[in-house]
Design brief:
The complex is a heterodimer of chains A (367) and B (174). Chain A contains three helices and 27 strands. Chain A is mainly beta. Chain B has 174 residues and is mostly helical. Classes of the chains: A mainly beta (367), B mainly alpha (174). Chain A: InterPro entries: F-box-assoc_dom_typ3, F-box-assoc_interact_dom, F-box-like_dom_sf, F-box_dom, SCF_F-box_component.
């Protein structure tokens, strides 16, 4: 008897223990595998994961159902590392703010994986990113060693390898950390210092490419990277309105093919968000969840050393899910549903996409 | 082994049940161990399997059943503690060592175990064997998976697809 003859139920059990995205590659094994993978493995819709910190610890909460009218958050993880590098296929990558040490965790299985320390001088956890390359099934952690906003190399760790690798950036690049470093769809993205271009580091061929910003980000505007349904987005925010932190308008543009291939890569505008009568900002870095968007309260910013906003976030139903190619005008005029269940006096450090997975981490402990 | 607090109420001796494999071999085992199987648990709760009766398992041969019971006996104490929240790190390390050793077996035995774990609905064992197979194929190219799992030669169409994949991403498997 051979393993290829397994009954479908037992086979599905095995598939669910593999990285969800590596299933793309396993579809090639045989026609039967393709059928089972297509029909029996979930094509999940990510949930929102809120990352909050207080003086003691960092907390990760999952909001299971934005539509149930209560927006209840459920704690899934607690850790002493207080920065979130990013999430990928249900794995969280956390970073120690003081030392730059990194750990990858799976909240479902409770497994944790310490990652080798990056050899580049550690300056800022915001320069780390955590991504996944679908065709090869490899996870990579990327660090941008910035000197006065400029980089001539990228440090890369393939999960499971014993050490980081230095990848030279031909011609150099620059990075505006405040706009975020986001990994999505097989590449790590950042905005250049002058906010005139978006750069991508392809997690497959490990080359840097750039594309112009979709619109000019001039005086009175700011921008940050976001993820919109598995594609890179850039939110361009008009901050002209005086004496308030609430933007006049937010435009969200999405990278056409998901990845920067060449000069012809196009942006398309997906959301045009107007905030009126309430003090709200779109959640960062991930705000769109099916027919809901998440926002944060902009009023009670802390003015101390703590980064991020006081933890108040809200779900807003924006109607039917977005059809590709259309521009959706979103009005945020209602307060929305406050997310409950989050520990008091903590600060929100970001909202991320999350899929539950039972993918084991032990196989990456090779080093 | 400590008697469960809400036991049958009688003496300290653990209740035993008899399982009969497809080739008619009888295995006497503690009810607590056999109850790791969701399928058997119901029968045992109903008082079955005791005395001379025995529970027939027509889908499991004696070699596989003895292996399955080895797993159940090892894991029964931890399961009785409700997932062993108060187990020591040493206990947990020992179970992990046992599990790793346990699935270090050839493919035909692994196949029989997967079938048995499914038929008997032993959650921990299902998870252990599924993870073992997942580890066997993780990081492999589609062709390597076919070889590992003993598929026949691919059809020309399948071969062409795999060749195209390797041409583009072969570097990732080096």
């Amino acid at each position: 008897m051979k393993l290829k003859n397994l009954p479908t139920d037992a086979f599905v059990e095995i598939l669910l223990r593999l990285p969800p995205s590596s299933l793309w590659r396993f579809r090639l094994v045989s026609r039967h595998w393709r059928t089972v993978i297509d029909e029996r493995t979930p094509r999940s819709r990510p949930k929102a994961l809120a990352f909050c910190v207080n003086g003691k610890s960092a907390y990760a909460y999952v909001i299971d159902d934005l539509a149930d009218g209560r927006c209840r958050a459920r704690e899934v993880w607690r850790h002493r590392f207080k920065a979130m590098v990013g999430t990928c296929n249900g794995l969280l990558c956390l970073c120690s703010v003081s030392s730059g040490d990194i750990v990858v965790v799976n909240p479902v299985t409770g497994e944790t994986l310490d990652v080798p320390r990056c050899p580049a001088e550690y300056r800022n956890w915001k320069a780390f990113s955590f991504g996944f390359h679908l065709p090869t099934g490899l996870y990579k952690i990327v660090y941008l060693p910035l000197t006065y906003g400029f980089i001539d190399e990228v440090q890369v760790l393939t999960l499971g390898d014993a050490s980081w690798r230095r990848v030279a950036v031909a011609g150099g690049s620059s990075c505006r950390l405040a706009a975020g470093v986001v990994s999505v769809d097989g590449a790590t993205f950042w905005v250049t210092e002058g906010a005139d271009r978006v750069a991508s580091f392809d997690l497959g061929d490990e080359r840097v490419r750039t594309v112009p910003m979709p619109v000019e980000v001039g005086h009175g505007f700011s921008c940050h990277l976001t993820e919109v349904n598995g594609r890179l987005g850039v939110a361009v925010i008009s901050t002209e309105r005086p004496m308030t932190t609430t933007p006049a308008k937010i435009e969200v543009w999405v990278l056409g093919e998901g990845i920067i291939r060449d000069r012809r890569t196009k942006w398309s505008r997906r959301y045009s968000v107007q905030v009126q009568g309430v003090e709200r900002l779109l959640a960062r870095p991930h705000f769109a969840y099916g027919d809901h968007v998440l926002t944060t309260d902009t009023r009670k910013r802390t003015h101390t050393h703590m980064q991020g906003e006081l933890t108040k976030m809200f779900g807003h139903n924006v109607g039917r899910p977005l059809v590709s190619g259309e521009v959706r005008s979103v009005w945020i005029r209602e307060p929305g549903t406050a997310v409950s269940g989050i520990i008091e006096n903590s600060n929100l450090r970001g909202i991320f996409a999350y899929d539950e997975t039972t993918e084991p981490l032990s196989c990456y402990r090779a080093w | 082994m400590a008697a469960p607090e809400s036991g049958d109420g009688n003496n300290g001796a653990a209740r035993m049940v008899t399982l009969i494999s497809s080739d008619n071999t009888r295995f006497e085992v503690e009810a607590a161990a056999a109850s790791l199987s969701q399928t058997l648990q119901l029968t045992i709760l109903d008082g079955g399997g005791g005395g001379g009766d025995g529970i027939p398992l027509p889908n499991v041969d004696s070699a596989t059943l003895s292996k399955v019971l080895e797993y159940c006996i090892k894991h029964a104490p931890a399961a009785a503690n409700g997932g062993a929240p108060n187990a020591t790190a040493v206990d947990r390390a020992e179970l992990e060592r046992f599990d790793n050793e346990f699935v270090n077996i050839d493919q035909s035995v692994l196949y029989s175990l997967i079938m048995a774990a499914h038929n008997l609905e032993i959650e921990g064992l299902q998870s252990l064997v599924a993870k073992k197979v997942a580890d066997m194929i993780k990081g492999k190219s589609p062709m390597e998976i076919r070889r590992t799992l003993g598929f026949p030669d691919p059809t020309p169409e399948e071969q062409a697809e795999m060749n195209a994949h390797m041409l583009e991403y072969g570097w990732a498997y080096e």
